[in-house]
Input
Amino acid sequence: MTPAEQSLKAAEICRLAPVVPVIVVEDLGHARKLAEALVAGGLPALEVTLRTPVALDAIRAMAEVAGGVVGAGTLLTPADVKAAKAAGAKFGVSPGATDRIIDACSEWDLPLLPGAATATEIMLLLEKGFTVQKFFPAEQAGGAPYLKSIGSPIPQVKFCPTGGISLKNARDYLGLANILCVGGSWVAPKEALGAGDWAKVTQLAAEARALRG
Ligand code: 3PG
Output
């Protein structure tokens, strides 16, 4: 799968809803219920970060939830890409981008949303064919004003910014022409998961879904 083909797929996934939940699963027992709660609230695309020992099993469990499109985040090595694909991930997200990660995603047919934070990084990814990129860490790297500025010289690249985004500032991003969606962990808070408060997760997801009416 070429980078251009990967970006087409990434765009399709990013357009499913205004927000992609960025999920950290500590307890495998939460995975399925969490995915069901988020999908029920209107957020079908889910990024499960490979930051916990159960992350790959969580992807396996969540991939069975009807209506969900589950991807793997925090891809740092080619081995992560291979394992994510084997677990059933439909897309991959990386905080930055390296040739090894990019080559692995092409080899394993995993649509990649590669991370970039500067004009040069964005241009290097565009040269390879990635027209859809993750902007990370969004708030810390300049936020919505930065992305608005980047949109003048490089309007052909569309972004999913993540990092420091919440219900409070998501609209600042979603109003820009070069933003397809935003990513954030606020819709799957640790406290709600710990308490098994799936109704709360669905409520947060529904609020996020309503960001774009
Ligand atoms: C991450 O990789 O942790 C994401 O960017 C989510 O960031 P957030 O927790 O600030 O939403």
